[in-house]
Design a protein that fits this description.
The protein is mainly α. It has a domain of about 110 residues. The chain is built from four helices and no strands. The chain starts with a helix and ends with a helix.
Length: about 230
């Protein structure tokens, strides 16, 4: 009667050990697969971040190159800002020249009128103090008119300085704005941190699981053989 019990105990022990062993192997494989999948995901994410960094760096360099070209075209001698300022200077100089030219013509007209009036007085036979008084009045009137012209020319000269100074300030301001786009050289972005690889289950854990399965089998055998 002992032999059937011993055989049954052996069968039950073997089943228990096999079941535990399969569970240990399955757990080990599952943990290994999970670690491998996580590591692959980390690698893909890291490689993607590296590509994004490289693309950003390439785009920054291209943008910087175009900004440098535009800066030279805008601020260089004969550039956009320089030509705009020169056109303003030429326009203001022409305006001032025209004012001086008109003042010169007006002065000639006044001198002619002064000479004519003096000649008319002499032709009319005016002599003595009356003639002198007339000449003094006309000369004083001429002098007063010349003072007004001088004040007007001084005002025109001051206005010329104000307007041309504004052109210069505008040119400097525009140049500074253009320089702000190239003042800081592009730099490659910070590299992403390297992925931390997850370690899979060690062979020792599998060996421990198998040993545990053997213990379970032995325990089951002992139970049924008692």
């Amino acid at each position: 009667m002992c032999e059937p019990i011993s055989t049954s105990a052996m069968v039950m022990g073997g089943l228990s050990a096999g079941s535990s062993a399969l569970g240990a192997i399955g757990s080990h494989q599952s943990a290994s697969a999970a670690a491998s999948a996580q590591n692959e995901g980390a690698k893909r994410s890291y490689n993607y971040q590296l590509k994004v960094r490289e693309n950003n760096w390439r785009r920054q360099r291209v943008t910087s190159a175009f900004d440098q070209i535009r800066f030279q075209k805008e601020t260089g001698v004969g550039g956009t800002f320089d030509l705009a300022a020169r056109r303003g200077y030429v326009s203001e100089q022409q305006r001032l020249n025209n004012i001086y030219k008109k003042a010169g013509f007006a002065q000639q007209d006044q001198l002619i009128k002064l000479a004519q009036s003096s000649g008319q007085a002499a032709a009319s036979g005016m002599r003595g103090k009356n003639a002198e008084r007339l000449d003094v009045n006309k000369v004083n009137a001429f002098r007063l008119q010349q003072e007004k012209v001088s004040e007007s020319l001084l005002g025109a000269q001051a206005a010329y300085g104000v307007r041309t100074g504004a052109f210069r300030r505008q040119q400097i301001s525009a140049s500074n704005d253009s320089f702000s786009n190239v003042a800081i050289a592009p730099e490659v972005g910070v590299a992403p941190p390297a992925p931390v690889m997850r370690s899979g289950p060690s062979g020792l854990s599998l060996a421990a699981g198998l040993m545990g399965a053997a213990v379970d089998g032995a325990s089951t055998y002992k139970t049924f053989s008692s």
